[in-house]
């Protein structure tokens, strides 16, 4: 197997085996970029007979960006090499800010409290290409990002509106519409310094009068 990639990236390579033959010897070397003295492993069917087994490299970067994975039977082997699955992971260098710890703690608490079922793994804001669904961020100071918009509409949220939302002090837009939220809106939520839009429509909240009577710059939707 061969591939070529940008030389600034390194890879981790996982190879998976489960052998179903035990009557004859299967033994082979796993060579990665053999001509460049890359990683090398040896697999035996006496260790992976009916047992899932894998080998993997540490982070590895080829000098010229070219990669080759070869399975070569040893002289002692009767059976040819085999492979059940191959996984290749590219390590993406951090080139952008990370999320402010206060914002990270708050949104992780929200995730846990409501059991949010989205692709919420890793850093909420970075890498930008893999930012969490419904989360938008801005670069605050050159080395940290702030969560500025959170869309949890139609997310099957139950219970009351958590006070953890009030810890996202850079929020400009919060959409909690069309869930099953009840109770009251936390007093400090409408007064977040940057909040411009709060959408709580389609819930069973008890204090819509707060929204109707609020005269500040915040846009309420209920």
UniProtKB/TrEMBL annotation:
It comes from the Eukaryota. Residues 5-89 form the Malectin-like domain. It is a single-pass membrane protein. Keywords: Kinase, Leucine-rich repeat, Membrane, Receptor, Repeat, Signal, Transferase, Transmembrane, Transmembrane helix. This is Putative LRR receptor-like serine/threonine-protein kinase. The keyword Transferase applies. InterPro entries: Leu-rich_rpt, LRR_dom_sf, Malectin-like_Carb-bd_dom. One of its GO terms (molecular function) is kinase activity. Its main location: membrane. It is found in: Membrane. GO terms for cellular component: membrane.
